[in-house]
Amino acid sequence: MTVADLAIIAALIFAWGTLSARLERFDMTAPILFTAAGLLLTHGPLTVLHIKPSAELVKALAEITLALVLFSDASRVGLHHLRADLSLCVRLLGLALPLTIGLGTLLALALPGVTDIWIALLIGAALAPTDAALGAGVMVNPAVPARIRRLINVESGLNDGIATPVVTVAIAGAATAEHRGHTGAGAAVAELALGLVIGALVGGGGGWLIKVSRRRGWVAEGFAGAAVLGLAVCSYATSVALHGNGFIAAFVGGLGFAAAGGQAARLVPFVEETGAVVSLLVWLMFGMIAVVPAVADLTWQIVVYAVLSLTVIRMLPVAVALVGAGLGRATVAFVGWFGPRGLASVVFALLALEDLGDTAAKPAVTVIAFTVLLSVVAHGLTADPLAKRYGPRLGGAAGPPDAVQLTPVPERRLIRRSPGTVR
């Protein structure tokens, strides 16, 4: 990229920062606008600017963004978030998520060009994690009970880290099947294990050191947030350097930091805000390089799968997992629908493209890209209107089954995925 390209991108970020609250009132979220901007810059009237990001830049940006998001999400979702609704979190993460991956994998086998179980598993696992930022209207709308907002937020914060090992094994298996010189699924599992150990040591050890240093007055508060940002990057980079899985290291590093850091976990917003800025660039790149190829290769089967991914493949497992949880049908449907696919799915697609090559990865990347595009629009536009309808319904129209959700629950700081989302 040239300096002129950098100036244009910086201007876009500035414009979003100054107008974000106003635009979000019209259901225009950051992913919608930056995806559209990327599309216009490379395939619209602004193509004369000749902005074209390199593959290396896109991959590096996507990887560091996901690492920061995994670390900040894991460190933000501490035990205090889970205690109030531990049963519901376990249901969604321990039952609904595996069922979503399994159902998505099974239906992906019917897609044209998907003849390998590993590619089907890649599609199912890459599209299972949710991204609360795409439904920002839900997370900031006081009409939605705090308990439900927190549940959606916690699920979104943890399911991408849980799905990462499955995606990693699927890519490794597909690479082996394509004879691309990959060491196979067994080696991928070993990388995951190494990443887990490194993440626990770096994140937990770093959290303890920051806690001790702050207690003794060794830390200048103006640089404390930067120290946590360095720890997040160190967790990822150390694992990659030692041939471990960097994403698992970042996720486990965040968990370790939250467990060992105590009050130091309050410094995570610095990491979140940095991740939020670079995530805008990922959405811009998504619009630049992924949208047009996805639409060009579109078939009716892919359209059907994308619709099913956002509805049946997500909502049915959620409904099964929440049976007997004491939540009404309106709430189960609401939680099931607000499972938007976002940043993690985009990064997983980019990783598959890098490791498998254009030909082998094309079926998976096309499905993932179109599903994310559909989710960006559908969830971004429906978040605020449905939240406004859902809240009043709990007030009387939904009847006794939903009354349990109105039990006063103290507000907690919410995980932040994109500018404009409250914590």
Structure overview:
- The chain has 423 residues and is mainly α.
- The protein has a single domain, classed as Na+/H+ antiporter like fold (Up-down Bundle), CATH 1.20.1530.
- 74% of the residues lie in helices and 0% in strands.
- The chain contains 17 helices and no strands.
- It has helices spanning 3-24, 30-43, 55-76, 79-82, 86-108, 117-126, 136-140, 146-177, 185-215, 221-241, 246-261, 269-289, 291-296, 300-310, 312-321, 329-337, 343-397.
- α8 packs across α9 (185-215) and α15 (312-321) crosses α16 (329-337).
- The protein is globular.
- It starts with a helix and ends in a 26-residue tail after the last helix.
- Residues 395-423 have low confidence and may be disordered.
What's this model, at a glance?
This protein is mostly helical and 423 residues long.
What name is given to the CATH topology?
A: Na+/H+ antiporter like fold
End-to-end span in angstroms? 34 Å
Our Rg estimate from Cα atoms comes to: 21 Å
What is the 3D shape? globular
Q: Write the H/E string, N to C.
A: HHHHHHHHHHHHHHHHH
**Residue windows where pLDDT falls under 50 for at least 5 positions:** 395-423
Tally of helical segments? 17
Helix content: over 70%
CATH architecture: Up-down Bundle
Mean pLDDT: 82
Largest beta-sheet details: none
| Strand element count | 0
Class from secondary-structure proportions: mainly alpha
Number of domains: 1
Task: Supply the CATH class.
Answer: Mainly Alpha
Strand-residue fraction?
Answer: under 5%
